[in-house]
Each structure stands twice: as structure tokens, then as C-alpha cells.
Amino acid sequence: MGASKTDFFTDKQNGIATLTKALGHPARIAIIEYLVKVDTCICGDIVNELPLAQPTISQHLKELKNAGLIKGNVEGNAICYCIDEKAISKLQDYFANISAKLQKKNMCC
Amino acid sequence: MGASKTDFFTDKQNGIATLTKALGHPARIAIIEYLVKVDTCICGDIVNELPLAQPTISQHLKELKNAGLIKGNVEGNAICYCIDEKAISKLQDYFANISAKLQKKNMCC
DNA sequence: TTTTAATATTGCAATATTACGATAAATATA
DNA sequence: TATATTTATCGTAATATTGCAATATTAAAA
Question: CA-CA distance, A68 to A70, in Å (whole number)?
Fold first, then answer.
């Protein structure tokens, strides 16, 4: 095998898993944090920020974009990538909701 | 290759990536949601909840446990798994922090 | 002690991910 | 137009993940 059985889970579950999976690599976390840090969205120099080759960064950016975590605008011959706030909000809400539900329970362990 | 270059990233980045990676599969999201839903922590019947074989569930549980998202207590010949609230809090805080920082910026795209 | 029940581990096949060199594509600049 | 710059894609090797059948382990119950 090797392929996830996504058909058997709800759209919401698959949606959250898509977002968390995309963030499940330190390089992609680092890219998100870099995008948060810089004021402008000119992101061509992520390559200089991370110890990875340009094709590898490009691939990571593609995965973040496919998952909906970042957006990309062509800006001359460079590309302006930036965070899609909606995706972050979705994750924030998701974990806040779980936290709230856990507060109401007395866990056994 | 195939192995992530974890050495080049910060502990915090690797820590978040470990948590999100563990959640990056719909079955593991479903397990977490099941653990949130049930009042008691008697979790032996996760196998009946999901369309996956017992060894597969056991493997997913192991990954969630290794990442620190769930804890497991031996309870007779069954095992009581439950969510580790600290891990969820960590994720909630992380995304809340990013959201807050994004509010203060005017994104270009 | 034998049996039963609940989980974990092993071994394996199919597939996915990670990383990068080489190269292509697209656009700006000289 | 030729060249430089930026980013994407292709091809490939190494490794990781997913899933399950078979089997082992562990502890309760008979």
C-alpha cells in the first residue's frame, strides 16, 4: 500500500489532515514562519534563508500552496508568496475547539 | 534522499512539525476526534470506529503517542489512550500567535 | 493451567516523500 | 535580440509511510 484511505473519512477530517500534513515538515514550518516575519511578501529569498536547494524549496512551496496555506502572485519575474490567513484560522479554530471540549472532561490519564 | 534535514531547523520548528506531521493523516485526525468525543478514555474500540485493520490502528496510535499527542495507560489487558492536552495547547497557541501577527500586517496578496 | 481478549510487533508490498542536479520556462534588463 | 534572473519541472536515488496478514505478547478469566 502506501496510499491513505481518504475515501473513508469525512471531508472535514481530510481537510484538516491536508493542512497538518503540509505543515508536517520543519522546512515548511520555517517557510511559514519566514512569511510571518517579513513585512513584505517578496519571498524570492526564502532560498537564502533555508539550507535547502532551490528546487527543494520550490517543491515545499508547491505543497504549501496545494494545501491552501499560502498564495502566490506573479510579480514581474519574481513570485510573491504569502500566507492564506483563512487556513491558519481554520487550524486555530480547530485546536481551540478541541481544547474547549477537553476542558469539560475529566480525563482518566 | 527521503530523510528530512531536521538538524538544520530549530527545536521549536521540529517540535511543531512533529505534532503536525502526526496529525497529517485522516485516520489519526479521526482517532483524536474519537478521543475527544467519548467521555471515558477506554479506547479499545477505536478499531470498531475506523475502517482499518487492528495492526494499522495500533501503528497510528503509536505514532500519535510518539509525537506526544496521546498518552496510554495499561488498564488490565486493555489500554487506555487519551489526548495529551499539552500538545493540543501547544498547537493552539502556535496558530493563535501566527494569526495575531498576521492581523498586524497588510498582506500584499 | 488453559483459554480468551486486547494490543503490539514483524514482515512485506505498494506508494509517497525528500532532496537535488540538470534543465526548462518566463520575464526583466542591457 | 542576447543575457541575466527567478522560479518551475523533470528525472532519479534514498528513505519513509501506509496497510494488512500472520504472529507474538500480555493479562484477565475460566
Answer: 6
Domain that holds residue A67: 11-103
- Cell numbers linked to A91: 487550524
**CATH number, residue A40:** 1.10.10.10
Percent of chain B scoring above 90 in pLDDT: 68
For the stretch A53-57, contacts whose Cβ atoms lie closer than 8 Å and that sit 24 or more positions apart, written own/partner, are: A56/A27, A57/A27, A57/A31
Instruction: Round to a whole number and report the distance in Å from the CA of B4 to the C1' of D16.
Output: 10
Identify the band that residue A100 occupies on the pLDDT scale cut at 50, 70 and 90. very high
Cell of B28: 489519526
Could you tell me which of B42, B46, B45 has the C-alpha nearest to residue B76?
A: B42
Q: Which residue in A has a C-alpha nearest to residue B51's C-alpha? A: A8
pLDDT of residue A31: 96
CA distance A72 to chain B (A): 7
* Cα–Cα–Cα angle for A83, A34, B4, rounded to 5 degrees: 100
Give the containing element (helix H, strand E) for B82.
strand B78-83
pLDDT for B56-99, tens place per residue?
A: 999 999 999 999 999 988 877 888 899 999 999 999 999 999 99
Q: Based on the structure, what is the number of domains in chain B? A: 1
CA separation for the pair A65, B30 (Å, rounded): 24
